Amino acid sequence: xxxxxxxxxxxRSVYALNKDLPVFPEKVIELIKDCVRYVPDAFDMKSQRAxxxxxxxxxxxxxxxxxxxxxxxxxxxxxxxxxxxxxxxGTILYFYDGAAVEETRRQYSLYAENxxxxxxxxxxxxxxxxxxxxxxxxxxxxxxHYNPAIDxxxxxxxxxxxxxxxxxQMPFGGIANAPEPKVVEDIDLRVKIEK
Length: 195
Ligand SMILES: Cc1cc2nc3c(=O)[nH]c(=O)nc-3n(C[C@H](O)[C@H](O)[C@H](O)COP(=O)(O)O)c2cc1C
Hints:
Elements: H1 4-10, E1 16-18, H2 25-38, E2 48-54, H3 56-72, H4 79-86, E3 90-97, H5 98-107, H6 115-136, E4 140-141, H7 151-158, E5 164-177
Antiparallel strand pairs: 1-5, 2-3, 3-5, 4-5
The structure holds flavin mononucleotide.
């Protein structure tokens, strides 16, 4: 088991994916469930949602993303990107559930304006936990944002509640090609220490 910081360092955007997961798909699903269960949320609202798409559904999904983007861009969208995501083993769609947030927002009306930020922060924590956790399983992933253009299509395709808002898409799979090493800069320009 590598150290916490090693796990963080190893997480990268992996775009060259294949369908050969180095673990059983159940392991990936278990990781996602654990992350949704244990990642923090403001007032413990349990506002975060995930949809895991695998197998033929993944290809169907990325074909539909392509069709949607071609339609909204007037034909100026290339197949290459969506095909590369369809080549992976699956995709995790991240949402928050507005219905789960509203009751807590009413209860804590003094902070009403903060709730949107908090929900997005918790969603980001969830994405990071899953992304990093996948890499510890040897699974590569990247983070994509075709929302809001694809929102209506996604809701219809997977028959999702009206109150779910799509935040991000994370294609994952076996690592066909590792990314180039990361360029690191002088960290003291970004982190200040006062004693
Ligand atoms: C909030 C957020 C949004 C991002 N959106 C996208 C995206 O839409 N498409 C994409 O290919 N990468 C996206 N990325 C990935 C970043 O470009 C990537 O993490 C960054 O370049 C550093 O590379 P690394 O992930 O390999 O460390 C996003 C990352 C974050 C944190």
